Every structure is written in C-alpha cells, then in structure tokens.
Predict the structure.
Amino acid sequence: MFHRGIVIGKFYPPHRGHKYLIDTARSQCEQLTVIVCWKKSQFISGVERARWIQEIHPDVQVKLLDDDRLADDDSEGWAKNTLDVLGFTPDAVFTSESYGDPYASFMGCVHVLVDKARTYIPISATIVRSDPTKYAQFLEPCVRASFARRVCILGAESTGTTTLSKDLAKHYKTTWVPEYGRLYSEGKMFGDENAAWRTDEFIKIAKAQGILEDALAEASNGLVICDTDAFATGVWHERYLGKRSAQVEAIAARRKYDLYILTGDEIPFEQDGTRDGEHIRHDMQKRFVERLTEDAKNYIIVSGNREERLQKAIAAIDAIQPMVVDNAK
C-alpha cells in the first residue's frame, strides 16, 4: 500500500507487541524504517535496543533518535526531528498510540493505527520492565537472553555440579549450559598426554563457554542454569598454570550472574578417567571459596545428598529478587 513507511517508539524493551506492529507495517510497505528513541538516563541503551530490533527484523532499516531534548507531547517537534533523521517524508507512520494522528499530520503523511487496545498481544513495555523474567514469554529470543536470570553451579572435581545443574533445569523446565572445558579436555585425551595447558586454551574455553551460554539463554524461559562459567575457568587456569590470568578474568568480569552455587566436596570422589584425583579436590574447593569471597560473588554452598542439595538450591534461586528495569520515560 505504501512505498516508504516508518515505525517509531522507545522499544524499552522491544516485545512481541512491537513485533506485531513492525510486522504489520512491513507487510504494507516496500521499505520500512524503524526509529528507536532513547534517553541517556535509561537503563537499556538505544544502541542495544536498535541491535535487538535489527536482529528481529533484518529486512528493515533501524535508526536512532535522541529524545532527551523533546517533550512527549510536542508532536510538531517530534515530526521535525523525525524528518531530519530520515532525510525524506514517509508515506505512512504506523503506531499503536493516539499521538499518531497529530504526529503524522505534521509530517504530511498517513497515520495507520495498529491494535491500540493491545488485543492481539496483551503486553506493554511498562509491564515487561516491572519483571522481565516473569514476562519472558513476550520477548523474542535475543531480548529474552539479555534479561535471563543466570545461576552458575561450580565446584571442584566430582562434587556433583552437572547432576545439580540438570536437576535444577528439570525442576524449572528451562535450559542448562554444559561445561565446554570438559568437552575440550576430552577432545585432547588421545593426543600428547604430556602436553602442558596453555593460557590461550583457557581464553578460548572462557569465550566458548560464554557463547554457548548466550545461545542457550535464547532458548530458556528466562532462567539459565550454568554448569560453570568463565570465572571458574580462571580458577582452573590458576590450578594448572600456577598463576592467575588477567585475560581470562577480564572475560569473566564482563559476565554477570544472579547467584553462584558451590557444590560441597563431602561426597565420595569418582574417577571417570579425566579427573586429576581426590588429592587436590579439597584444596580446589577451598580456593573456590576464597575466590568467590574475594570477588564478592553472591554465593551459597550446598551439601548433603542429591535431594537435599536440590532443595537448598531451589530455595536460594526462588529467593532471588525480581529484576526491575527503571521506568524512566
């Protein structure tokens, strides 16, 4: 119906109501531009929101508009700034808001109102911001991954981290992230058994662990159970190379977790053919406690039988306070 159309909004954050609006507009326009409005004071940057929109809608053009200097009710000012950003006059603007009529009029184009009553997708960004995890089903995978709660299970060898990770994922009906370092180690087991570990290998493992985690976060229900992370990779670097790695720890510092759960070392040691041995297990457990404390991580230690550990972990996860994104306009 239209040659060039636009959709404008804060997308703070983008949700499936926004997707419905953009998809509707795209179906009626040969070319569609999505303008992301943002303020520097907002919790989620405009660049991040624009990245999400572009990933969700690869066939639209995405532009940023700094709205710090514009009042919400200044339709004429918004129209002028929109035309400056676009460099052309659109044929139509698509919104789900009442401001669309005067805004379109000042630009000299048609206003197409789409699902103002939120009948098709009953959600708003304000509701999502109140608890992104609770409303994760209204977020596209790339957005959901960014808001996902992340719980990391870690511990010394043969302390039940994988068992607990799987049990928690089953309980919460969500995804769990396997340990990439273990896979890497097993892949080397038939090579030169005397080959020493190198720092660059730990860097690769830390990066790969994060990539795997982020991919599975997109498939989660808003909670991701991680069987280790880059922080633990740094502790293992210290064990095998006798010193800490600033590069590995820098990777770890960029990633945030709501809770760390350290599995106790009181259970019997089981040798699976790849583990160092029980003689270092207690020292590693002690070092994990020292490093978690040093870095001021939010952590608990779980011990006991399988069910006892699970129930303690569930109680701690359930106690995590909901994430609330600020509601700045």
In short: The domain at 148-318 is CATH 3.40.50.300 (Rossmann fold). The two ends are 33 Å apart (CA to CA).
